[in-house]
Bifunctional protein FolD (Drouetiella hepatica Uher 2000/2452), 294 residues
Amino acid sequence: MAGLLDGAGLLDGKALAARMQTELTEQVKTLQAQSGRVPGLAVLMVGDNPASAAYVRGKEKACERVGIASYGTHLPTDTSQAELARRIQALNQDDRVDGILVQLPLPDHLDSVALLNQIDPDKDADGLHPVNMGRLVRGETGLRSCTPAGVMRLLEEYAIAPQGKHAVVIGRSILVGKPLALMLLEANATVTIAHSHTPDLAAVARSADILVTAIGKTELVTADMVKPGAVVVDVGINRVTDANGKSRLVGDVKFDSVQEIAEWITPVPGGIGPMTVTMLLHNTVWSYRQRLAL
Ligand code: NAD
């Protein structure tokens, strides 16, 4: 148990992700021996957004580490909606592919919602298809969106049970905030979702036993917004440049001061980021097992 006087314990997503990837590597070896093929993940990327390119490279390297085959395609910025839809359909039909992911954001001329809806829900590695979102709402088994699933897995690892706790999620995106709120609800927390229109955010945040930030605003959450002894999960990833012109990543939470009063806290980087990639691998292996009935 982390002691309040010593500062918060670190929820070490990087270490857990490494352990999970080792387990997945073993699982893939065993399953490959049974089925005769490895799981496959296809990442479709359009355009030259450098952040997206770095994420895609990270995902492909992680696939390689655990023995998942990558069928990634990098398409030019001017790729049409029809061409991308055709690619998705082809991947839906491709038996080597168990997971399909469209790297967001897409260039403005493309309708990402319409494209995500064309992914076969059983290959929806990101868990963003309405069928999988619907399964989450109904509490049914299905592919769960990677970042919120990574948050839940990290809490579980540290035996932090949401049951009976007040969880506050700041952020209501389809990618993180909304599905995470539903997952916390499923785990029997009492859940509040706060967002950019929430009055007195500080008071709402301070009422949380478990506070999750998925905002995208550098160090918005300060120590006066956190209940002493709370669990703080920082999903935010913000790039800042310091006075020397050096750039680094920081979260939505002012780490140094909040870690003095919280019981547990995630670092940025090294918290939820590595868990997100690992849950993508987990989802791909899960789909593969479902599809091959292994
Ligand atoms: P988004 O922009 O879609 O949503 C941000 C949410 O924050 C919105 O719901 C908005 O209402 C809320 N918000 C904005 N300003 C606010 C304010 N001042 N007060 C209260 N609420 C406010 O972003 P997203 O896709 O959900 O991502 C959120 C952050 O998480 C980003 O920094 C993103 O880079 C990061 N992220 C990290 C991972 C990871 O693997 N760690 C994965 C996905 C997203």
About this structure: The mean pLDDT is 96. The first helix runs from residue 13 to 35. The pocket of nicotinamide-adenine-dinucleotide is lined by residues 147, 170-173, 175-177, 194-196, 198, 201, 214-217, 220, 235-238, 272-273, 276 (CB under 6 Å). DSSP finds ten helices and twelve strands in the chain.
